[in-house]
Amino acid sequence: MAWIGLLGFAYAAFYGALAFAPSTDDGFNLPLATLILFLGLLPLTNALFDFLSYGLTLCFVRAGLGGRWGAGAGLLQRAGGWRALRFALTDIFVALIMFTLLGSALIAVIALANRLTPEPVFPLAPLFAAFSAGDGPFWVVAMLFSTALPTAIHLVLAGVSLTGFAPRGLRNWLVGLVADYPDGGQRGLIAPLALGSTWFLAGALPLVVVGGIGGALYLAFPLIGETYLQVFAYVANLLGEAVKIGPGYLPQEPFGGIAV
């Protein structure tokens, strides 16, 4: 496929520019190398995973919300509400995998850049130390969580689809309010508020539940964050980066004495 060739060419061009970057009078041109890394290689890698994440989420949305509107079901009932939720939960699992793969890919991109230059363009050890201390830079978090944004939107859609399981009397009441708007007087004025509140609560509920589960896991396993950092630290150490973080639930030296 042509886009794979273009992607490979872009990586080759950026890494070639790093390897053969013109030196300054003081030696290695670190500012230029930093620009190539942060405005070229990292955004390119992040864009690739954002594209894949969007595509996977779109497939899950189509599979979960692809049912037809039920005949005579009203505005809020949709076939397959639980089906939509199942695919949304699957999307969360896939998003976690994509999140981990993106983090590992970014580490690999930085590690290779550090290998191709006379001195490290962006040492990873201080970055891991900052995250281990709970003071990681926001741009890293934003870059990683950009892959989870489509999944969050999918969760909202799945939550809204569950309104089809509300009692028929409530659904008919809402449909009646919408039918009376805007000529139904005070009753008609309630329609936007009632309908908007219903969709907001239904859409926000899955996010609240997922956040609650995450908080419960953190309370039950306080070192879960450090353990997740260990996964990335293993990748960094395998690629030759001397990275150390605090203890987690994984072994400290899994690769023949490489301290993590």
Number of H/I helices: 9
Radius of gyration, Cα only, in angstroms?
24 Å
* Overall domain count: 1
Instruction: Note the overall shape.
Output: elongated
In whole angstroms, how far apart are the ends?
39 Å
Overall pLDDT level: 80
Strand percent estimate: under 5%
Low-confidence stretches: 67-79, 255-260
Q: Which structural class should the secondary elements be placed in? A: mainly alpha
Helix amount, in percent? over 70%
Written as H for each helix and E for each strand, in order along the chain, the element string is HHHHHHHHH
The biggest beta sheet is recorded as:
none
Based on DSSP secondary structure assignment, what is the total number of beta strands?
0
Model description:
Helix 1 runs antiparallel to helix 2 and helix 3 packs antiparallel against helix 6. The radius of gyration is 24 Å and the shape is elongated. The longest helix has 36 residues. It has one domain. Helix content is 71%, strand content 0%. The two termini are 39 Å apart. The protein has 260 residues and is mainly α.
